[in-house]
Amino acid sequence: MSLRVAPPAAHPTSTSNTTASKLSATTSTKSKDDLDRGAPSAPGLHDTLRASLYPQSTASTQTVTTAHPLESRLANWQATQEATRLQILRRNFGIAEPLRRGMELKLVRDADSFRPSVLGRPAGVHEEILTGRDAEITWEDVYAGQDGMRLAFQGGDGQGTGWMEEMERKVGMGKW
Length: 176
Known about the structure:
Residues 1-47 are annotated as: Disordered. InterPro entries: Ump1. The chain is mostly helical. The chain has helices at residues 69-93, 96-111, 125-131, 139-142, 163-171. It has a domain at 72-153. It is 35% helix and 0% strand. Helix 2 (96-111) packs antiparallel against helix 3.
């Protein structure tokens, strides 16, 4: 593995709405019948809802299915930075250090996998320290959301869900 600073640029440089191919920067092995020719009601227009805006994933990169291609690019950036950091640790300290950090990270993620919304979302401080992101402030740190809220259209009165009710759903006690 090379020590890349940035992930390879696999995003399309342009799109074409009038040709048979979906993205002009990528090659496709599909037959002519399988190609996306646009919206059914207007064949010359690009159908954004049915078409993919991000490049097809390869075996080495993971694709984030989001609304914006930059989110996929950011996820690939973080994955590349993490792989580079682990490769540097492996070169300096041997295989034991990246393995130990990987096991610690798995333990931290498993410990925070369920926490009742009444108690708030898990802080993730341990995970941020292990991944080297403890000095960053992201939008998840600022916006907590309304995870435990039950809205009126969901049959609730806008109050938060009780932790016992949430735990019963988690362990499947309502299925009896």
